[in-house]
Design goal:
Largest sheet: 2 strands, antiparallel
Radius of gyration: 22 Å
Shape: elongated
Number of strands: 2
Oligomer: single chain
Number of domains: 1
CATH architecture: Orthogonal Bundle
Strand content: 5-15%
Distance between the termini: 55 Å
Length: about 110
């Protein structure tokens, strides 16, 4: 659960969400990721460290460059947890539909 807490905490920040959205389009270097933001490269690097520590992105070494990309493992863990919540909501909505259907049948029966 700590990894999940770190992941959701990391995506609570709008800059980090924007970085993840950019990385969804493909790998990028720190300088490429820093371009759309009015912040220094060290500030972007701090955001990247939070995302890496949360398991949402990974980096690879390519000479002097360290391009980042999304980490399937971190994103998948969040997706599985959200899927559990979606399933619980669907179950609740199905039960509500059944209750409403029963109420509608009772209403029609009383009119007869």
């Amino acid at each position: 659960m700590q990894a999940l807490d770190a992941a959701f905490s990391a995506v609570a920040d709008p800059t980090r969400r924007a970085i993840l959205a950019r990385l969804a389009k493909g790998e990028a270097t720190v300088n490429e990721l820093a371009k759309p933001f009015e912040m220094t490269q060290p500030a972007i690097s701090q955001h990247l460290k939070v995302l890496e520590d949360a398991g949402l992105i990974v980096r690879r070494v390519e000479g002097t460059k360290r391009p980042r990309r999304l980490s399937n493992r971190g994103i998948e863990a969040m997706d599985q947890w959200l899927a559990m919540l979606r399933n619980a909501l669907e179950t609740n909505y199905d039960r509500l539909d059944q209750v409403l259907e029963g109420m509608e049948k009772q209403k029609k029966a009383k009119k007869r």
